[in-house]
Specification:
Layout (H helix, E strand, L loop, with lengths): L3 E10 L3 H12 L6 E14 L2 E14 L3
Length: about 70
């Protein structure tokens, strides 16, 4: 039987929500082993001078607890 844990992280990018997601998963995988999935809970942007400045995602990362 596997036991899974979920953590919540925030990530951003100047390019896109997809890039913010990829960066968040890559960074989390540096310290969290056994990542199984990432769920994008929400997306948002920051705006500066009438233009989109950053794309932000709130991710739920699921990983297996190691024995």
């Amino acid at each position: 039987m596997s036991v899974l844990k979920v953590i919540e992280i925030l990530s951003d990018s100047n390019k896109s929500w997809e890039d913010a997601t990829a960066k968040g998963v890559a960074k989390a995988s540096q310290s969290v082993k056994g990542i199984r999935s990432a769920f994008v809970q929400s997306q948002s942007v920051t705006v500066s001078k009438g233009k989109v400045n950053k794309f932000r995602v709130n991710l739920k990362i699921t990983f297996e607890i190691q024995k």
